[in-house]
From TrEMBL:
Signal peptide: 1-20
Keywords: Signal
Keyword Signal: yes
Keyword Signal carried by entry: yes
Protein name as catalogued: TATA-box binding protein
Organism: Clostridium puniceum
Length: 216
């Protein structure tokens, strides 16, 4: 591994002081919740989010009506219809985007909730979206996302120490135009995607599980 890439990996992974994660199992707290809380200690919260995808055999018009009813009863906001297959709910903190499409005998639903309020964790956001599920929702999948600003470096934290202590496995790194992106596994096997991106306004550290679903 050349010096440039070694330094880049060190800088990027130095943000991931995940000591608490090594003790987490599938039966404990959501592993991304632990990860998010640790990253918040080395970055300034900017936004986080959760995406829910599922399929249903329910009539799509009925499904859309049900989703709108659930959102209206639980979240205050303004409703905007983009087209017959996409609509949004917006307020000062939340941006909720809902898309639907049909494929074979199923209708598919994607609900993406982006939050700007530091008081809400991704676990809180997941709990909100779980209220939309019903007994007809199949193959439910959740994606988690966090973005922080002005991450701090710890020059005394070596990459080997970080990987060994936190049991981050199969870590890999890719250089991109404005920073670095990487993947790895937490100690419980959960896959994560992370990035260190430089903008004119500063640097951002971004994490996702299993992938980062927002553009950066």
């Amino acid at each position: 591994m050349n010096i440039k890439v070694s330094i880049a990996i060190f800088v990027l992974l130095s943000f991931f002081n995940l000591g608490a994660v090594s003790n987490v199992t599938h039966g404990d707290r959501n592993s991304f919740d632990i990860l998010e809380n640790n990253i918040k200690t080395v970055s300034e919260f900017e936004e986080n989010g959760v995406k829910l995808q599922y399929k249903t055999r329910e009539n799509i018009e009925k499904e859309i009506f049900r989703i709108k009813k659930q959102l209206n009863s639980n979240i205050n906001g303004d409703y905007t219809e983009i087209n017959e297959n996409q609509f949004q709910f917006l307020n000062d903190n939340f941006h909720i985007d809902i898309k639907t499409w049909d494929e074979d005998k199923y209708n598919y639903v994607e609900i993406k909730l982006i939050n700007k309020d530091v008081r809400y964790s991704t676990l809180d956001l997941k709990n909100m979206l779980q209220k939309i599920e019903d007994e007809k929702s199949e193959d439910k999948q959740y994606f988690f996302y966090y973005k922080g600003k002005r991450a701090k470096e710890d020059s005394n934290y070596s990459i080997n120490k970080l990987l060994n202590k936190n049991k981050v496995q199969k870590a890999s790194l890719l250089e991109i135009s404005n920073g670095y992106s990487g993947t790895g596994n937490l100690s419980n096997g959960d896959k994560i995607n992370f990035a260190l991106i430089k903008y004119n306004t500063g640097s951002n550290v971004i994490i996702g599980m299993p992938t980062i679903f927002e553009l950066y």
